[in-house]
Specification:
Number of strands: 12
Structural class: alpha/beta
Number of helices: 16
CATH class of the largest domain: Alpha Beta
Number of domains: 3
Strand order of the largest sheet: 3-4-5-2-1-6
CATH superfamily of the largest domain: P-loop containing nucleotide triphosphate hydrolases
Length: 462
């Protein structure tokens, strides 16, 4: 994305569709002049940050477009750091489209995706990690993910990164001072002291990286796949977890021939639960296709519930499911669910499932018992590293994780060079690489193609 100070951009800042209010936003040097060409009474610098009521009329024939409320934010005290004008109009798409057409005719251009936030980043109103947090806030689907996204927007991740950068810069400064005095045999810092400094910095990065599993689940949600033979209670379990009827429940085998997806929340993590076709030996072509899709879904799951009837011995269909579990045990986190416990629990089932290296939960979907234990098991399997909601800052971006891993590699290289007695110039080179990588998170050294990719995923009005 190329930033041009002379351009004035315009876009709808609220969702598409009909509503009570819509907001059209302009940013750039001609924002106020363009809007004043349309208003019945011009706004002046005395009206900065005041909501001004007026009529918006066509510049061509002065035909009424709408009654509006206009707010003017003067540069640099605005979201983008430029002059910004926001027009609040009635939320009729015809009115919005007319306003966009009129402003473009007067010299504005339609904003590219994320261009308002890109301008905020370019004008140093936000650093890059805060700009990315804007999109996270919009996408958040649970209160927990929203809480951490707002912390990123507030700048808490940036503060952590800046603290790590300060430690690396301190080590590099000491090393370069030692190089300056090397001919005078003055040792400003010993290799051992530098090692200790780098160990602390590395530990800070490792602690942040450990939060990524939880952060990824907050940002993207988790996929929970329910598998089992027909009539084992998969659809009933889905409905109970959701707290509503989402899947059709029937005594007829093969009722669910394709998968059904529905979302719910578990302790702040959004979960996309998938009720799959019953796994059994069948010659029915449609049912067989559903079973093949079930196997594909297992590959994309974060956790899978393998359901069995706990009150009677395993049959051929149960054995087929156990083979599937064994075949996928290296790549899928299973929880073995023994349903229909209200009818009793057959010891032979417990014994057979004990051979599988996965946690077991006994429950009755019908009586809604054992569900708390199931939810706890799901949570444990999703968060193998443990609950991290007490962490002030949680890493949610795959890009940030990759950059921190590269930073870790550079710092580990510097430590290795110090241990091996390598020239100080080699150690300094690794430290400079680490600084460059950290700068990619906050935006100082981020390549242009990465910037384009980040902002291309924003909506047009943000």
């Amino acid at each position: 994305m190329k930033y041009t100070e002379k351009d004035t951009i315009v876009a709808l800042a609220t969702p598409l569709g009909s509503g009570a209010i819509a907001v059209v936003r302009l940013s750039g040097p001609r924002s106020l002049a363009i809007v004043n060409r349309l208003l019945d009474k011009a706004i002046t610098t005395r009206d900065v940050r005041r909501a001004v009521f007026g009529e918006l009329r066509s510049a061509r024939d002065r035909e009424l477009i709408d009654q509006v409320v206009v707010t003017y934010f003067q540069a640099p005290a605005s979201y983008t750091g430029e002059d910004v004008v926001e027009i609040s109009c009635h939320g009729n798409p015809l009115i919005v489209d007319r306003i966009l057409q009129e402003t473009v005719a007067l010299g504005a251009r339609v904003a590219e995706p994320g261009e308002f936030t890109f301008r905020a980043f370019w004008n140093q109103k936000l650093d890059l990690s805060q700009a990315e947090a804007v999109a996270e806030v919009i996408r958040s689907r649970t209160q927990q993910s929203l809480k951490h996204s707002l912390r990123h927007l507030e700048g808490r991740l940036s503060q952590k990164i800046e603290a790590v950068k300060a430690e690396v810069l301190d080590a590099l400064s000491l090393l370069e001072i030692s190089l300056d005095f090397s001919e005078e045999d003055v040792e400003v810092v010993t290799p051992e002291e530098l090692q200790d400094k780098l160990v602390h910095t590395i530990e800070q990065i490792q602690a942040l990286l450990r939060t990524y599993t939880y952060g990824r689940l907050l940002e993207n949600g988790a996929r929970l796949v329910i598998v089992g033979k027909p009539n084992v209670g998969k659809s009933s379990l889905l409905n109970v977890l959701l707290g509503k009827e989402r899947a059709i429940v029937s005594d007829l085998p093969g009722t669910t021939r394709d998968y059904i997806e529905a979302g719910w929340q578990l302790d702040g993590v959004y979960i996309q639960a998938v009720d799959t076709a019953g796994v059994r030996q069948t010659r029915d072509r449609v049912e067989s296709l559903g079973i093949r899709r079930t196997l594909e879904l297992l590959k994309t799951s974060d956790v899978a519930l393998a359901m069995f009837e706990g009150h009677r011995a395993l049959d051929g269909d149960d054995e087929a499911l156990m083979r599937i579990v064994r075949e996928h045990q290296q790549t899928t986190r299973f929880i073995l669910v023994l349903n229909k416990a209200d009818l009793g629990v057959d010891p032979s089932v417990v014994s057979a499932l004990a051979a599988l290296p996965f946690p077991r939960v006994v429950l009755s979907v019908k009586k809604e018992t054992g569900l708390t234990a199931l939810k706890e098991a799901i949570k444990r399997e999703m968060l193998k590293e443990g609950e991290m909601d007490n962490e002030e800052v949680v890493l949610t971006s795959a890009r940030h994780r990759t950059v921190l891993e590269e930073t870790l590699g550079a710092l580990s290289g510097a430590r290795r060079s110090l241990r091996e007695g390598a020239p100080a110039e080699m150690v300094a080179l690794d430290l400079r690489v680490a600084l460059d990588r950290l700068g990619e998170i906050t935006g100082e050294t981020t390549p242009e193609d990465v910037l384009r990719h980040i902002f291309a995923h924003f909506c047009i009005g943000k």
